[in-house]
């Protein structure tokens, strides 16, 4: 009997999220709680605090999602949970909760890779958003967030070729660290995005690393260092030219992402693209992607903002797909903080 409705849990970092996803790929229910206010005073995620907050928020969120959707446990066919990669303590809260619920309610369990969830997020139907009916494998997927900047040739469910990755910092990390240095709140990405709208993208000449090489890898450590040195040399520009700083810095990141994506499309020989992860919420990146896709005849999917950041709906979709091809996880399922060298996602 096919699986029709899955409850999903996502706690890989500092967002606690619970969702219900059905076999039509519709998000039946989704609730996410951010911990930004908790970690803002520290300028970054504190793993112990993240873990503690997941423990307090997760079960109430499960009950809230079920109640708002009017769904009883008898109607749920399985439980999906993020199992890797992420902060080990945060993952442990989600996996332990999912295993307990699976045992109590006698539901099949499936562990889901967080990156695989991001790659499939644009396939969800959420509110007014719906992907084109004919959008399918193969495609090129760019997963770009605070912890990941990776380019994949996605051939089918479970068949991924890693064709490009960051050799040091992720794009989201570069945004957050620079934003912290110029006095913006945490996480800084959205603040840089807002300020950049009133700035000049050519005001400062920031480096675009690895653009002359033919490969598809990324590097943002040089950009981060360049921004840091500029502000240290003249701290006053962090106030007098903040919008120009943000616009120029942001443009350097966007230029690299769009160019490498273009090269990835050529290398893979496809005309379909998915861009996902927290940084895909950036308005300048979305604008540039739209223009690029139109000019190159590319079908480019970028999910709604709520599905860009870490969310349980994307985990539910992958969990549903895998349950429906016969996969199951045992109640001995354990979280993994890192991907193995042999793993692509």
Which secondary structure elements does this structure contain, and how are they paired or packed?
Elements: E1 5-10, E2 16-22, E3 27-33, H1 36-39, H2 47-69, E4 78-84, H3 88-105, E5 109-113, H4 114-120, E6 139-144, E7 149-156, E8 159-165, H5 171-181, H6 189-196, H7 221-233, H8 237-240, H9 242-268, E9 272-276, H10 283-296, E10 299-301, H11 305-308, H12 312-323
Parallel strand pairs: 1-4, 4-5, 6-9, 9-10
Antiparallel strand pairs: 1-2, 2-3, 6-7, 7-8
Measured on Cα atoms, how large is the radius of gyration?
A: 20 Å
Overall geometry: globular
Q: Count the strands?
A: 10
Strand order, sheet with most strands: 3-2-1-4-5
CATH topology of the largest domain: Nucleotidyltransferase, domain 5
Helix content: 40-55%
Integer average pLDDT? 94
* Poorly predicted tracts of residues: none
Secondary-structure arrangement, i.e. CATH architecture of the largest domain: 2-Layer Sandwich
Order of helices and strands: EEEHHEHEHEEEHHHHHEHEHH
Superfamily at the CATH H level of the largest domain?
ATPase, nucleotide binding domain
- Structural category is alpha/beta
Under CATH at level 1, the class of the largest domain stands as Alpha Beta
In DSSP terms (H or I, runs of 4 or more residues), the helix count works out at 12
Largest sheet, in brief, is: 5 strands, mixed
Domains counted in the coordinates: how many? 2
* N/C terminus separation: 29 Å
Strand content: 15-25%
């Amino acid at each position: 009997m096919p699986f029709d409705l899955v409850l999903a849990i996502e706690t890989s970092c500092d967002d606690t999220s619970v969702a219900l996803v059905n076999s039509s790929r519709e998000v039946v229910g989704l609730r996410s709680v951010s911990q930004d206010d908790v970690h803002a005073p520290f300028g970054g995620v504190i793993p112990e605090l993240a873990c503690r907050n997941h423990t307090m928020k997760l079960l109430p969120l499960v009950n809230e999602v079920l109640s708002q959707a009017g769904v009883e446990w008898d109607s749920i066919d399985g439980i999906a949970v993020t199992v890797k990669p992420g902060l080990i303590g945060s993952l442990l809260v989600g996996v332990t909760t999912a295993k307990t619920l699976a045992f109590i309610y006698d539901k099949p369990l499936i562990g889901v890779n967080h990156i695989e969830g991001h790659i499939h997020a644009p396939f969800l139907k959420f509110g007014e958003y719906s992907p084109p009916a004919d959008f399918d494998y193969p495609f090129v997927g760019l997963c770009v967030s605070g912890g990941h900047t990776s380019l994949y040739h996605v051939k089918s469910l479970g068949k991924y070729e890693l064709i490009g990755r960051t050799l040091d910092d992720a794009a989201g990390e570069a945004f957050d660290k620079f934003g912290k240095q110029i006095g913006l709140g945490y996480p800084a990405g959205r603040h840089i995005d807002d300020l950049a709208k009133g700035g000049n993208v050519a005001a400062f000449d920031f480096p675009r690393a690895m653009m002359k090489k033919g490969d598809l890898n990324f590097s943002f450590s040089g950009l981060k260092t360049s921004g840091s040195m500029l502000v240290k040399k003249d701290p006053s520009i962090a106030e007098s030219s903040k919008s120009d700083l943000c616009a120029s810095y942001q443009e350097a990141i966007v230029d690299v992402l769009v160019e490498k994506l273009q090269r990835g499309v050529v290398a893979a020989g496809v005309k379909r693209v998915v861009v996902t992860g927290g940084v895909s919420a950036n308005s300048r990146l979305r604008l540039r992607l739209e223009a690029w896709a139109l000019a190159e005849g590319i079908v480019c999917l970028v999910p709604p903002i709520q599905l860009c950041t870490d969310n349980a709906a994307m985990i539910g979709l992958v969990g549903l797909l895998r349950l429906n091809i016969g996969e199951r996880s045992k109640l001995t399922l354990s979280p993994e903080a890192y991907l193995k060298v042999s793993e692509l996602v």
